[in-house]
């Protein structure tokens, strides 16, 4: 099979202000795979995603995405190139209805294009339809997660980065979210970069994975291999 690298990160150091949080991180994500990033609390997983999306400060290194160097692109340029990002928190505007949230997410489309995108997003997430006129504030955690996903999918990403999409969700709802991620990957061909606190599920779902500890890479390779690497998992994740 012909394997295409969609994302390549080379020796990336990034953080906030003058503080370096992630140190010379290198890895790659192949087109069509689910790739998981795991690591203890505070190890820099969210910071890594923010750096990839242009929201953290990059000190050195390179980010290549879909054949382009995007290291210093602002977030909206990354979105234009097919990168999607679902942050850990604050991913919907609470004071607005679901419809208004979606219109805001699709502001760059012409009316015709927007209708088309909305239709295809609702085909994948039919439950969004019945939530259209609800204020985001009134949504449950799982519904909110779904609307946030709809907003990102509206922009037609090639790769979607999820930051702990199941945090604070009941186990049953969390499984629905995992199911949705797998469906996006298998049926819609979306490449997925998944940050998860549920290490076991994250490694079961992924083809390959990265273990981040104190901002440095401790493992990069097959998710199966990491799942069976008892020493690493017990040392860093207490499993
Ligand atoms: N905006 C910020 N300004 C300064 N430091 C920050 C900022 N955001 C995070 N940090 C620090 O960066 C380090 C890594 O945090 P980060 O949120 O990336 O970790 P994480 O692996 O996502 O943790 P968790 O599993 O708890 O979500 C922490 O020490 C944190 O305090
Ligand atoms: Mg985090």
From TrEMBL:
SMART domains: AAA
Alphabetical list of Gene3D superfamilies matching this protein: P-loop containing nucleotide triphosphate hydrolases (3.40.50.300)
One Pfam family of this chain: ABC_tran
GO biological process: L-amino acid transport
InterPro entries linked to this entry: AAA+_ATPase, ABC_transporter-like_ATP-bd, ABC_transporter-like_CS, BCAA_Transport_ATP-bd_LivF, P-loop_NTPase
UniProt keyword terms in alphabetical order: Amino-acid transport, ATP-binding, Nucleotide-binding, Transport
Start and end residues of each ABC transporter domain: 7-239
Superkingdom to which the source organism belongs: Archaea
GO terms for MF: ATP binding; ATP hydrolysis activity; branched-chain amino acid transmembrane transporter activity
Record's signal peptide: none
Family that this chain belongs to: Belongs to the ABC transporter superfamily.
Designated name of the protein: ABC transporter domain-containing protein
Species annotation: Thermofilum adornatum
């Amino acid at each position: 099979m012909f394997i295409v690298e969609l994302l390549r990160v080379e020796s990336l150091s990034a953080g906030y202000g003058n503080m370096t949080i992630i140190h010379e991180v290198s890895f790659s994500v192949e087109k069509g795979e689910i790739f998981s990033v795991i690591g203890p609390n505070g190890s820099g997983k969210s910071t890594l995603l923010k750096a990839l999306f242009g929201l953290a400060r990059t000190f050195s290194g390179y980010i290549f995405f879909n054949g382009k160097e995007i290291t210093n692109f602002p977030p909206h340029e990354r979105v234009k190139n097919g990168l999607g990002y679902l942050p850990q928190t604050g991913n919907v505007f609470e004071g607005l209805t679901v419809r208004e949230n979606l219109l805001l997410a699709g502001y760059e489309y012409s009316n015709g294009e927007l209708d088309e995108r909305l239709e295809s997003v609702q085909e994948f997430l039919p439950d969004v339809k019945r939530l259209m006129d609800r204020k985001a504030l009134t949504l449950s955690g799982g519904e909110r997660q779904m609307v946030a996903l709809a907003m990102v999918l509206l922009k037609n990403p090639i790769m979607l980065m999820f930051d702990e999409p199941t945090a604070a969700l009941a186990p049953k709802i969390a499984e629905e979210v995992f199911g949705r991620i797998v469906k996006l990957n298998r049926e819609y061909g979306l490449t997925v970069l998944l940050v998860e606190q549920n290490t076991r599920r994250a490694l079961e779902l992924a083809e390959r994975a990265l273990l981040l500890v104190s901002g440095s890479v401790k493992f990069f390779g097959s998710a199966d291999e990491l799942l069976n690497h008892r020493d690493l998992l017990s040392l860093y994740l207490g499993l």
